[in-house]
Amino acid sequence: xxxxxxxxxxxxLSSTEKTLSDLIGEGFLLLGRRVRCAxxxxxxxxxxxxxxxxxxxxRRGAVVVFVIVSFAVTWLIWLPILITARTxxxxxxxxxxxxxxxxxxxxAVAAAMWEGGTQGVRQWARRTFAVNFRPIWWxxxxxxxxxxxxxxxxxxxxxxxxxxxxxxxxxxxxxPGLAWPIVMAVWILTFGVGEEAGWRGWLLPTLSRRMSIxxxxxxxxVVWIAWxxxxxxFNPTYMEMGAGIVGWTLALFCGSYLLAWMAAGANWSIIxxxxxxxxxxxxxxADQSAGIIAS
Length: 295
What we know:
α4 crosses α6 (180-207). This protein has helices at residues 2-46, 62-87, 96-99, 103-128, 136-160, 180-207, 213-227, 236-239, 244-265, 271-284. The chain is mainly α.
C-alpha cells in the first residue's frame, strides 16, 4: 500500500517534469532551426549568383553596357544637330533633339537585358514605373519645381530690375507655338522618361547595391553632367549660360542627391522623379530662362 501510494504520489511530479523538459527542449530546437534558416538565407543572399539565376549581380559589366549605350544613342542622334549648328546655324531645334533624350532609357533596357534577359527587363520596368508609393511624393514632385520657379523669378527680378514675362513661361523655340501644359507633357515623355528611366531608374539603384546611396548619387551626377556635353555646342540655353555653368553644375549635383532621395523614398519608382525633372526642364529650358533663371 505504501509502495502504491509512493508511485501514485510521484507520478504527477514526474509527468510535470517531463512536460517542462519537453517544452524547453522543443523551444531550443525551434530556435536552432530558426537560426540555421537565417544563416542559410543570409548566405544565399550574399553568395555569388550562378548563371542560371536572375539576380542583378548574375552578370558583370552591366554598368559599362549602360554608359556606352546611353552615350552612344544620345550623342549619335545629336551629332548631326551639332554639325549643322557649328556650320550653317540652326533655324530651329529639330525633333531629333528630343529623340536623343531616349539614350539613358535605351541604356537601362540594354543593361537590364544584359543582366537578366527579358525577365530582367520586365522586372526593371515593373519597379521603375510602379505607382505604389506614398502620396507625399506626388506633393514633393510638383511642389519643388514650383518653389524653384518662384526663387528663380525673384532672383532674376533682383538682378535685372524687372520681373520675367509670365506670358512666356515655359515657351521655347524648340517647341514653337505650344502652350506650356503641352510643352510640359513633351518634357515628361522625352527628357523625363528618357533620362530618368536610366539615371534613377537603373544606374542609381544598381550602384547603390555596391556603395552607399551618397556615393552612388555622386557617380550618377558625374555621368549625368558628362552626358550633356554636346548640348553646350548647339543648344542656345547652354551656349548662353556663360559663368552660370558653375551654378548649373552645382544644381545637377544637388539635384542628383535630391532625386536619389525621392527615388529611394518612392521604392525606386521614377514617377515622382520624372515629374520633377519635367517641371525643372519647363522652367530652365524656356527661352527667357537662358542665363540667370537657368543657372
